[in-house]
Design brief:
Elements: H1 3-17, E1 19-20, E2 23-27, E3 36-37, H2 38-52
Antiparallel strand pairs: 1-2, 2-3
Amino acid sequence: MEPEVKRAILASWASDANAVEGNPAVRRPPRHKRPIPIDEILDALRKVDRNAS
Protein backbone atom coordinates (compact mmCIF):
# COMPACT_ATOMS: atom_id res chain seq x y z
CA MET A 1 0.00 0.00 0.00
CA GLU A 2 1.32 3.43 -0.92
CA PRO A 3 2.21 5.88 1.88
CA GLU A 4 -0.44 8.35 0.73
CA VAL A 5 -3.14 5.70 1.01
CA LYS A 6 -1.95 4.68 4.47
CA ARG A 7 -1.95 8.33 5.55
CA ALA A 8 -5.51 8.83 4.31
CA ILE A 9 -6.76 5.74 6.13
CA LEU A 10 -5.04 6.65 9.38
CA ALA A 11 -6.30 10.25 9.19
CA SER A 12 -9.83 8.97 8.66
CA TRP A 13 -9.62 6.66 11.64
CA ALA A 14 -8.22 9.42 13.85
CA SER A 15 -10.98 11.75 12.75
CA ASP A 16 -13.70 9.18 13.43
CA ALA A 17 -12.28 8.42 16.88
CA ASN A 18 -12.56 12.10 17.85
CA ALA A 19 -15.97 12.87 16.35
CA VAL A 20 -18.42 14.79 18.52
CA GLU A 21 -21.60 12.78 18.84
CA GLY A 22 -24.50 14.53 17.16
CA ASN A 23 -22.21 17.00 15.36
CA PRO A 24 -20.35 15.22 12.57
CA ALA A 25 -18.56 18.36 11.33
CA VAL A 26 -16.69 18.82 14.64
CA ARG A 27 -13.87 16.88 16.30
CA ARG A 28 -12.64 17.07 19.90
CA PRO A 29 -9.08 15.75 20.22
CA PRO A 30 -7.96 14.55 23.67
CA ARG A 31 -6.78 17.34 25.98
CA HIS A 32 -8.02 20.03 23.58
CA LYS A 33 -10.04 22.87 25.11
CA ARG A 34 -12.49 23.40 22.29
CA PRO A 35 -14.02 21.32 19.51
CA ILE A 36 -12.35 21.80 16.12
CA PRO A 37 -14.46 22.21 12.97
CA ILE A 38 -13.54 19.72 10.26
CA ASP A 39 -12.77 22.62 7.89
CA GLU A 40 -9.90 23.72 10.15
CA ILE A 41 -8.55 20.18 10.23
CA LEU A 42 -8.70 19.86 6.45
CA ASP A 43 -6.98 23.25 6.03
CA ALA A 44 -4.18 22.09 8.33
CA LEU A 45 -3.78 18.84 6.37
CA ARG A 46 -3.54 20.81 3.11
CA LYS A 47 -0.82 23.02 4.60
CA VAL A 48 1.13 19.97 5.74
CA ASP A 49 0.83 18.45 2.27
CA ARG A 50 1.98 21.69 0.58
CA ASN A 51 4.99 21.95 2.87
CA ALA A 52 5.93 18.32 2.20
CA SER A 53 6.09 18.94 -1.55
